[in-house]
Amino acid sequence: MLTRFLLLLLLLLITIFSFQSLATPLRIAVASNFKLPLNEIVSQYQKSTNNKLTISSASSGVLYQQIKAGAPFDVFLSADVKRPQMLINEGLAYNNSVFVYAIGQLVFYSPNQKIKINALNNKKNKLVIANPLHAPYGVAAKNVLDKILKSPFKGTFITSSNIASAFQIVHSGNAPAGLVSMSHIVSTQVNQTDYVSIGIPQAQVAQGAVIVSRTKKVEQSIQFIEYLKSAEAKDIIKQYGYQVKQ
């Protein structure tokens, strides 16, 4: 009798945990620059599928470290392809799930033209960039400056934790200029005279998505990744100033 009771109790617990797993939303870790378009993508996705998702946003480097430490994310949308590949190499993500979901672009932003890009390299100037240690857009910013300046930057760098905060620092008037994401320029409807597009390869940032291998929601993760590749999702991505691979 006791054995049967224990068996029934075990089956009951398995059923409860199974329902809890099904009820848990799909957890998306997203680089800060892509949070706004992802909010819209998730809204459309939930309307068409009734699947629930939650979003956590930070710099790609911070999210990568959180995943390594065991954070319960299912899908990782990085602002580079380097960190998704690192997770694959470490056995923490599925190799066949990685793909470039968006290509971002850095622009030079100086409200009211306080600083012009061709007069940037002055020791009095301050320039905001995302922290290159954690943010791919910060790495891209350093590469852009190395390419467009004839000598090392003479001014003062102001580094922020991620590209979203870099934009806010400049947009709020707390710094005169910065290298920021075109996505924030578009979504905030910045005056066209206040920013300059940088037409060099170093200003483009390929962003990679990957499914985390510890996920308990493989099918749901694949379904979301497939939606991210859809024409509907790509239209939203392009509206926010990104390019997409066809």
Model description:
The protein is α/β, with parallel strands linked by helices. The protein folds into two domains: 24-103 and 206-239, Periplasmic binding protein-like II (D-Maltodextrin-Binding Protein, domain 2, 3-Layer(aba) Sandwich); 104-204, Periplasmic binding protein-like II (D-Maltodextrin-Binding Protein, domain 2). The chain contains nine helices and nine strands. The chain has helices spanning 2-23, 35-49, 60-68, 82-89, 136-148, 163-171, 182-188, 218-228, 231-239; strands spanning 26-31, 53-58, 75-77, 99-109, 126-130, 156-160, 178-181, 195-197, 204-211. The strands form two sheets. Strands 1, 2, 3, 4, 7, 8 and 9 form a seven-stranded mixed beta sheet that branches. The chain has a two-stranded parallel sheet with strand order 5-6. Helix 2 (35-49) packs antiparallel against helix 9 (231-239). It is globular and about 55 Å long. Residues 12-21 have low confidence and may be disordered.
Query: Stretches where pLDDT falls below 50 for ≥5 residues?
Result: 12-21
Helices and strands: which structural class?
A: alpha/beta
Count every beta strand, where a strand is a DSSP E run of 2 or more residues.
9
Overall mean pLDDT score?
Answer: 90
Q: Give the name of the CATH architecture of the largest domain.
A: 3-Layer(aba) Sandwich
Radius of gyration: 21 Å
Q: What is the helix tally?
A: 9
Give the N-terminus to C-terminus distance in angstroms: 63 Å
What is the helix content?
40-55%
Strand content: 15-25%
CATH topology of the largest domain: D-Maltodextrin-Binding Protein, domain 2
Order of helices and strands: HEHEHEHEEHEHEHEEHH
Output the CATH homologous superfamily of the largest domain.
Periplasmic binding protein-like II
Largest sheet: 7 strands, mixed
What is the C-level CATH assignment of the largest domain? Alpha Beta
